[in-house]
């Protein structure tokens, strides 16, 4: 008798848990598609591209100077004194070091600028997703590109609602 009551209790509990999960609402969104459709993203991308061009121009200037000094060294070093050859050789080494330092610095500056420009865009997207999810009573919002399968009959695609919230057509 105790075993029968225990079995009935477990079955009733399982049905209650199953019913509770069945009532939960799930949503999904392609966050990348959302972000790339945002005007803020396009503006940030344009600013980052312009900034990158500035960084590359500085590196190219140093590279031109390096190439010029190296060509001069290769062409004229046979006619120079040992002392002049050493001085010119050291100039080339110094320019090489500056070039490496500028490359490293440019990478760091690019990453910092990228974070500076895109963090507000990502926050704006996340805030809009959260607002739509809360208003819709969704328990979970899945990133549709990060899961293997989305059953769209049991999960709502909230991309258009979030775009509307952000004023994107």
Features:
169 residues; mainly alpha; Protein Binding, DinI Protein, Chain A; three-stranded parallel sheet; 3 strands; rod-shaped
CATH hierarchy: architecture: 2-Layer Sandwich
Q: Supply the CATH superfamily name.
A: Skp domain
Strand order of the largest sheet: 2-1-3
Number of spatially distinct domains: 1
Percent of sequence in beta strands: 5-15%
Detailed description of the structure:
The protein is mainly alpha-helical. It has one domain (24-166): Skp domain (Protein Binding, DinI Protein, Chain A, 2-Layer Sandwich), CATH 3.30.910.20. The protein contains 5 helices and 3 strands; from the N terminus they run αβαααββα. It has helices spanning 2-23, 31-37, 39-76, 82-136, 159-166, and strands at 25-29, 138-143, 155-157. It has a 3-stranded parallel β-sheet. α4 (82-136) crosses α5. The longest helix is centred in the middle third of the chain and has 55 residues, at 82-136. The chain is rod-shaped, with a radius of gyration of 30 Å. The termini are far apart.
Question: How are the secondary structure elements laid out?
Answer:
Blueprint: H1 2-23, E1 25-29, H2 31-37, H3 39-76, H4 82-136, E2 138-143, E3 155-157, H5 159-166
Parallel strand pairs: 1-2, 1-3
What is this structure, in a nutshell?
By secondary structure, the protein is mostly helical. Helices cover 77% and strands 8% of the residues. It has a three-stranded parallel beta sheet.
């Amino acid at each position: 008798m105790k075993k029968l009551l225990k079995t009935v209790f477990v079955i009733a509990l399982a049905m209650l848990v199953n019913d509770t999960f069945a009532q939960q609402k799930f949503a999904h969104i392609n966050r990348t598609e959302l972000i790339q459709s945002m005007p803020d993203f396009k503006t940030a991308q344009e600013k980052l591209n312009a900034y990158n061009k500035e960084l590359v121009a500085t590196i190219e200037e140093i590279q031109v100077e390096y190439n010029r000094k190296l060509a001069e060294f290769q062409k004229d070093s046979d006619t120079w004194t040992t002392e002049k050859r050493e001085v010119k050789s050291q100039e080339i080494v110094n320019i090489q070091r500056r070039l490496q330092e500028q490359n490293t610095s440019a990478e760091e500056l690019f990453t910092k600028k990228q974070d500076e420009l895109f963090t507000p865009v990502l926050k704006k997207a996340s805030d809009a997703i959260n607002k739509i999810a809360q208003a819709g009573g969704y328990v979970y919002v899945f990133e549709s590109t990060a899961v293997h399968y989305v059953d769209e009959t049991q999960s709502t695609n909230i991309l258009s609602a979030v775009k509307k919230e952000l004023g994107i057509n």
